[in-house]
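Input/output pair, single chain:
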Amino acid sequence: MGVGGWKWGAATAALAMAAALAGPAAAKDVVVHAGHLIDGVTKTTRDNVSILIHDERITAVQAGFVTPAGAEVIDLSHETVLPGLIDCHDHITGNFDGGNPVAEAVTLTSFDAAYLSVGNARRTLEAGFTTIRDVGGDAAVLIPMKHAIAKGEIEGPRMFVAGPPLGPTGGHGDPHNGLDPDLSHPGWADVVVDSPEAARRAVRTLRRQGVDLIKIMPSGGVLSIGDDPSLQLMADDEIKAVVDAAHALGLKVAAHVHGREAINHAISLGVDSIEHGSYADAESYALFKAHGTYLVPTLLVAQTVYDIAKAHPEQLNPSSAAKALAVAPMVQKNLGDAYRAGVKIAFGTDQSLAPHGTNAREFALMVKAGMTPMDAIWAATANAADLIGDTRDIGSVQAGRYADIVAVSGDPLKDITVLEHVAFVMKGGSVFKAGGAPVHPSDAEGPGKPAVGTGDF
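Output:
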């Protein structure tokens, strides 16, 4: 063995010995002193509260400022503290920079999406969103990204991912739309379902890949080319096949729908959430309530695309610009009507058209549509966790939940826009932002351990 090989072997042995001697990481106790707490459990703000944390979870929430022996104190006694925020409709791999989305569909690769998404994830977390539900993207990028975040290899929100959305030929989500019909890609056909059999197979394949939920496209969309958002394009038997297959595997189904008929059919067939829901009416709201279906209104994307269509229509396909001007105003009206009718609302932005990290702009639009600030916050905490199906871990500040905590200066119940300026972010007991400045938890742990492998010899 040469000298270089001896050094490599010795280093590997030393690392193994160090790991054996070190044992498990030392437990960590933290107490957060919260001046005001909106906890996601009750809709009453609590003052002067201590949140006790052991490692990544909350162990207790106590009245008054207490300091257990040996606990690190985080002083938020002058701030309003909330559960980590949740965006139920995100596209973390999506990036809009005013370029041509059709051209990007055939020029950008999954590697481009992966690298760009690392920054998107960090910005989203720093904005106070400790959990997202990604409802449309490349599963080959999203699932490894979810795992890398969970392992602490990159910084970002906790992720629940759908992978690519399923829909019919020529519908919203068909990757061939707007392109030369002779163009193709190995993965494009996998997301186009034109029969119940194809729908079931697609669901099962996505589950095998590791998705957490399924996204479908029963109606046309706004930004897609050549389809009508007011029409139902996915047949009832195809929708039902997706729902039955997904629910049998323990997966929820999110349905992108604008048109009234498609909304009513999708709800009756058992989807768990309606994304957008632009043309819902009183009959739709009765169905929402009867089936317990959530509405995820996505006001931010509607406002953003409307503004682009008005000021810079050249950045959109002409048909998309026209659809944006017609559909976007209906999204906000629909939220107000649905809210007053008692429909369950979960927070979602359809982030990718607006810059990542600006998710909290959705709150002001929700309040403008008629929601109270508390109910808008509830949509991004308790309701969002319920829609995702993980109220045991996220969505509230109470014992047993992940220590996902954010804080703002000011009172969001008086001015909801303060949530656009989150000053403190903790996810799973690790602080990622403090005093309005980013914090990298890995910095406090010293340099990363050397890689152990076979080298390139």
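The first strand starts at residue 29 and ends at 37. The radius of gyration is 23 Å.
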